[in-house]
Amino acid sequence: MESPPLSRRSLLQAIGAVIATAATPLGWEDVAQAMDDADAHAGQLAGPGKLSFLTSAEAADIEAVAAQIIPTDDTPGAREAGVIDFIDRALATFYSQLGSDYRAQLTAFQAACRELHPGALSFAALTSDQQIEFLTRVDDTPFFNTTRLLTLLGMFALPSYGGNRDGTGWKLLGFEDTHVFHPPFGYYDRDYPGFAADATKTR
Question: What residues have CB less than 8 Å from 1, skipping those under 6 apart?
Answer without folding.
Answer: none
